[in-house]
Design goal:
7-stranded mixed sheet; binds S-adenosylmethionine; 11 helices; 7 strands; alpha/beta; Rossmann fold; about 260 residues
């Protein structure tokens, strides 16, 4: 997949950061230490929008954002010089010392094998610490179904074989509850929120997903076909998200949240 595009991603920054705020609100944990002693990891930190919330909430804490995208890390470093940012793959996250808070907003869906990943991340949480993550829960939504259907059209199918089912590995709410609560004394909270984002038009929905969910579909295509894929997608968004009373489209976006406190 091509590298991420921080500028395109931050076009909808407010909407994308809202779930991170909601997740952070549930990250209260018994703090018997000053913030300066806390170690916090932001996995898949992107351009630093989620990391900025952590820095604001826990001033003085040692915060490290990890990401596999150099472009995203560069944007994050420019934005938050007081935090540390490091190249790091969530799938291989094995720090020398555990973190008091392992936080991840809208990133774990890019990593396969959650049955083993979630317990592995939980092992990196210090005693008394918290694991908190949010992932999109929208695979059955028109915005995602349309991508998979267009990928099967004759123009695109020969070039996309193998890529289209990539995100199917995400578990159910019950799976995450089980994976987080299985070992040890843990307090686990799993919930879903559906955000409804008013979007200017069908093209705006395409723009939203161009920097995220559409990437596995359009990145492998040559430029002309990538543009054609996006044009087909915009047609489908126009059809599947009807115009509302104010002329805009309402993009429903379900998201799954999980917070686990280590006893
Ligand atoms: C949708 S962005 C989320 C950014 C930010 N956390 C937020 O709250 O908006 C997903 C980020 O995960 C990163 N990412 C994807 N796969 C990754 C992996 N295996 N390890 C680390 N980061 C990854 C991407 O580079 C991207 O910056």
């Amino acid at each position: 997949m091509a590298d991420w595009n921080p500028a395109l991603y931050t076009r909808f920054e407010e909407e994308r950061t809202r779930p991170a705020r909601d997740l952070l609100r549930r990250c209260e944990f018994p703090l018997d230490r000053p913030f300066e002693m806390l170690r916090i990891a932001d996995l898949g930190c992107g351009p630093g929008n989620s990391t900025a919330l952590l820095a604001e909430r826990f001033p003085g804490a040692a915060i490290t954002g990890f990401d596999t995208s150099e472009a995203m890390l560069e944007a994050a470093r420019a934005r938050l010089p007081q935090c540390r940012f490091a190249l790091g793959d969530i799938a291989a996250f094995e720090p020398d010392d555990p973190f008091d808070l392992v936080f991840s907003n809208a990133a774990l869906q890019w990593v396969l094998g959650h049955r083993t990943l979630i317990p592995a991340l939980m092992r990196q949480v210090a005693p008394g610490g918290v694991f908190a993550a949010q992932i999109p829960d929208n695979l059955a939504d028109p915005s995602q179904v349309a991508m998979r259907e267009i990928a099967l059209e004759p123009d695109f199918a020969p070039l996309l074989a193998g890529d289209v089912e990539r995100r199917e590995a995400i578990g159910t709410r019950e799976d995450y509850y089980d994976w987080l609560s299985a070992a040890g004394r843990r307090e686990v909270d799993v919930w879903t929120t559906i955000y409804n984002h008013p979007m200017a038009d069908a093209q705006a929905i395409t723009d939203w997903f161009s920097s995220t969910g559409l990437k596995p579909f359009i990145d492998p295509l040559p430029d002309d076909l990538s543009e054609r894929f996006k044009a087909r997608y915009t047609q489908e968004m126009d059809r599947r998200y009807p115009v509302r009373a104010d002329g805009r489209r309402l993009l429903a976006f379900p998201r799954l949240f999980m917070v686990a406190r280590k006893g």
